[in-house]
């Protein structure tokens, strides 16, 4: 969550001043960049579409069995040697509309006063280039998944072995004593995905902790939000280790590139799934078509066992619809021949709306981010520090502590609306502080003044949107409509969250540090519902957590869900979906942990050749 200095300027400056320029790893073997160079006559048991967290976990786990051959196809390029993907602080420079992004934009959002908002999705080996925040979420959310799907294997307790299997908790890069900041024994320590606490201090750290003591009843301290009970405010862990981003590619693919039974094809988009037969009256989809661009040659390959879609919550429903799998009416209106009527494909899209609330700070040293964006010498020195010793602010994404909070049951948000949370351990909203000016609206940072931004996100939204096709061209952008803030609960809950940020900022701990609401937020009358609501609608955008567009439901009837509890597609053969689209409901957390843990269990389900749900 950094600032908007120019990457190019920064690199030029840094590389000019730095004495030793590190040689970044070069492109590695076992990676194909051109489909025509794939080994002839090689047969693949599984073809996996998309190399984000889900596709990377599957490619790695399935090829642990030497006899299983896997082809992983990724639309974006190789991630190797890309400094912007390695330096955590540069996360904010990666999107929207940047090199490793699909560059999507939502349709106009009525709940946001008709604005459109950029809708980033990563397009590179490793998937969505996120802010690395790793939050397991609430026990109640997972137990609800088990209840909704009728499969106890998706419950919190049943998934614990998979959390342990995927995580590798490593010390923070500055080696500071973490006692009182985390409970190490509840984390895995031997998995592929490095996780650590932030390894550089921010000026707001001690004040956040002090405020949790001063306002304990509303903002209690939570020593480890990974316990299944995330409620309260505490230190946030992230998918970084040794000061560098640990993407799904770094964690799961790079270590297994030498496997002869795994081929990875980058720069190549899967454009369609092809029906290869019929079994027990159900269409079998084992063939994929792929191409490097709309004008390049089209290739076809057939999987011996299964095609697994892991293209993410936007592209998975897009690819299903392009292949004749989805709501029949929609397919017909586009001139696509329906093969399988699944009305829920592309539906139930849920995402977390985000609003930034700015406060002034008394001293420039309390605002690191604006100094970095205003002072290229300072930014360059920090990057140099990262390059030489992997230390400092560049090892952070811009935040170090997060709060997960519930709205009290007597609040008017619940007038006429049932509590949408999965239970009393699931938060309704998230609150955290960043030491600088940030704007969910995309407002450029002021050139004078110093800020801290209090971010609020609604994590139990009741608004639902959709993904659909604009065109039958697989290289065309799909229509993304998150339908943000379209329910009375969502606006009332965001209103509560903004006021909660003001209450948190009024703790004695912030005296002499914060100077009060600033920039646009200074104009808001926080006692007045209409004034807060207008602020929320004018400022909100997203924290980029779309899910549920091919959601999992109980076995059987294909109404209400797209996949079975074993992630096989309802009414089809040879086809599974493993990615953010299958989550039955949006987690009240940053979702990558849930997505990783789902993929880990999915790998075991696939290895044990389940797939008999009908
Ligand atoms: C800007 C941003 C910040 C975020 N911050 C956080 C965070 O801090 N913490 C957190 O928990 N979550 C965060 N997220 C969300 C998180 O990154 C995603 O939920 C997660 O990556 C989803 O994993 P996935 O495997 O479903 O899909 P993705 O990660 O989106 O991966 C899908 C992959 O499939 C590829 N693909 C798509 N279509 C095709 C096709 N037709 N052919 C071939 N390949 C294809 C894509 O290029 C992509 O690489 C963030 C997301 C964004 C965009
Ligand atoms: C892969 O695609 C990227 C852009 O996405 C391009 O810069 C690069 O040259 C391509 N690589 C190959 C080997 O085609
Ligand atoms: C997104 O925009 C950036 C910047 O213009 C560009 O480099 C990138 O290739 C675009 N992505 C796609 C999928 O076109
Ligand atoms: C931040 O900016 C202020 C104002 O320009 C300056 O006084 C201060 O020294 C800067 N701090 C750093 C670390 O560059
Ligand atoms: C810019 O940063 C450098 C290095 O930290 C510092 O010496 C200088 O005073 C800063 N300039 C301003 C205007 O803050
Ligand atoms: C809800 O209850 C709390 C504690 O009893 C009280 O302080 C608060 O004012 C109540 N809120 C509303 C909206 O009634």
From TrEMBL:
InterPro entries hit by this protein: FAD/NAD-bd_sf (IPR036188), GMC_OxRdtase (IPR012132), GMC_OxRdtase_N (IPR000172), GMC_OxRtase_C (IPR007867)
Domain Glucose-methanol-choline oxidoreductase N-terminal, residue spans: 312-326
Active-site residue numbers: 545 (proton donor), 590 (proton acceptor)
Metal-binding in keyword set: no
Pfam family, one: GMC_oxred_N
Parts forming coiled coils: none
Similarity comment text for this entry: Belongs to the GMC oxidoreductase family.
Protein name as catalogued: Pyranose dehydrogenase 1
Source organism of this protein record: Trametes pubescens (White-rot fungus)
């Amino acid at each position: 969550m950094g600032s908007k200095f120019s990457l190019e300027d920064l690199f030029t400056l840094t590389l000019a001043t730095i004495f030793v320029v590190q040689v970044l790893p070069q492109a590695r073997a076992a990676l194909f960049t051109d489909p025509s160079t794939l080994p002839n006559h090689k047969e693949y048991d599984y073809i996996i579409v998309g190399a984000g967290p889900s596709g990377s976990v599957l490619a790695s786990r399935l090829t642990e069995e030497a006899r299983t051959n896997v082809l992983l196809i990724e639309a974006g390029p190789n991630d190797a040697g890309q400094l912007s993907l390695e330096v955590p602080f540069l996360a904010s420079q990666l999107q929207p509309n940047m090199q490793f992004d699909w560059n999507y934009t939502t349709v106009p959002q009525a709940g946001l006063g008709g604005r459109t908002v950029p809708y980033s999705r990563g397009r590179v080996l490793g998937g969505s280039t996120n802010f690395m925040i790793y939050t397991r979420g609430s026990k109640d959310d997972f137990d609800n998944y088990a209840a909704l799907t009728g499969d106890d294997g998706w419950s919190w307790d049943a998934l614990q072995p998979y959390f342990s299997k995927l995580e590798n908790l490593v010390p923070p890069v500055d080696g500071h004593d973490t006692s009182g900041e985390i409970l190490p024994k509840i984390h895995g320590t031997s998995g592929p995905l490095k996780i650590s606490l932030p390894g550089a201090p921010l000026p707001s750290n001690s004040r956040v902790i002090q405020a949790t003591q001063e306002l304990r009843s509303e903002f209690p301290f939570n020593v480890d939000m990974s316990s299944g009970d995330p409620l309260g405010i505490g230190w946030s862990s992230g998918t970084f280790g040794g000061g560098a981003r640990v993407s799904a590619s770094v964690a799961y693919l790079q270590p297994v590139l030498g496997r002869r039974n795994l081929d990875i094809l980058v720069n190549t988009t899967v454009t369609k799934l092809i029906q290869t037969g019929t079994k027990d009256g159900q269409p079998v989809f084992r063939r994929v078509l792929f191409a490097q661009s709309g004008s390049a040659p089209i290739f076809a390959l057939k999987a011996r066992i299964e095609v697994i879609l892991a293209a993410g919550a936007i592209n998975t429903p897009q690819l299903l619809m392009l292949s004749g799998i989805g709501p029949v009416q929609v397919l017909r209106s586009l001139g696509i021949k329906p093969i399988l009527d699944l009305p829920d494909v592309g539906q139930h899209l849920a995402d977390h709306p985000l609003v930034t609330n700015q406060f002034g700070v008394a001293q420039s040293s309390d605002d690191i981010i604006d100094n970095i964006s205003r002072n290229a010498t300072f930014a360059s020195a920090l990057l140099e520090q990262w390059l030489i010793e992997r230390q400092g602010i560049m090892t952070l994404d811009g935040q170090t502590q997060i709060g997960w909070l519930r709205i009290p049951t007597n609040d008017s948000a619940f007038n006429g609306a049932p509590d949408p949370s999965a239970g009393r351990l699931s938060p309704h909203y998230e609150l955290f502080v960043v030491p600088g000016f940030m704007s969910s609206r995309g407002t450029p940072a002021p050139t004078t003044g110093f800020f801290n931004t209090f971010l609020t996100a609604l994590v139990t939204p009741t608004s639902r949107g959709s993904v659909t096709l604009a065109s039958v061209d697989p290289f065309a952008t799909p229509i993304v409509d998150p339908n943000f803030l379209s329910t009375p609960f969502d606006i009332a809950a965001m209103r509560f969250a903004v006021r909660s940020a003001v209450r948190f900022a009024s703790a004695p701990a912030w005296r002499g540090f914060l100077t009060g609401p600033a920039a646009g937020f200074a104009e808001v009358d926080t006692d007045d519902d209409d004034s807060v609501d207008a602020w929320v609608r004018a400022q909100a955008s997203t924290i980029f957590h779309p899910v549920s567009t091919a959601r999992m439901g109980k076995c059987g009837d294909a109404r209400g869900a797209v996949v079975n509890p074993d992630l096989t597609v309802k009414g089809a053969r040879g086809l599974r979906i493993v990615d953010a689209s299958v989550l039955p409901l949006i987690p009240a957390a940053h979702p990558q942990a849930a997505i990783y843990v789902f993929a880990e269990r999915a790998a075991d389900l696939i290895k044990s050749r389940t797939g008999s749900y009908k």
